């Protein structure tokens, strides 16, 4: 039997107050495991900025996954163009893709003509309610990045997500593409809110 001791961190509450700690925990666990990529969800770019500052000079690659264009308002990308430019100049990869755990399904469930939930949304809701909203976000970011060819199913990544904004969940994930979702493995939860 093999066992590796590691720290798991629990926040008293979800939310953006945990972002800087999540960035530190993500870098720590990536270094411990020899993982080269840290991924974080960021809507406006502020969370991405915090992670970039924490990872700068570490040798770790930062991948930022944003909301899809039109998520909140048709034709609008919520991510700050100024922050995007700054991060890209620093070598940060920014990925924007269709939300794997909602996308088209959400348009059907919100439609007055069709209505009803979907299996995809049930999976997303299970992540949100049973474990943490941030885990759902982290998993979805990994799926989006894999579908864009930014991460590979042959590697592990440290992925971070949050509840509404900021980061409050850190996990280690072996990616998969959306079409092979059940091959994805959440291998470790490094940090999460204890109460959701």
Give a nutshell description of this structure.
This protein has six helices and seven strands. By secondary structure, the protein is α/β, with parallel strands linked by helices.
Order of helices and strands: EHEHEHEHHHEEE
- Low-pLDDT stretches are none
**The level-1 CATH class:** Alpha Beta
Major sheet: size, sense and barrel closure?
Answer: 7 strands, mixed
| Number of separate helices | 6
- The computed structural class is alpha/beta
User: For the terminal residues, how far apart are their CA atoms?
Assistant: 34 Å
Shape: globular
Arithmetic mean of pLDDT: 90
Proportion of beta-strand residues: 15-25%
Strand order of the largest sheet: 1-7-6-5-2-3-4
**The CATH architecture:** 3-Layer(aba) Sandwich
Write down the domain tally.
1
**Radius of gyration from the alpha-carbon trace, in angstroms:** 16 Å
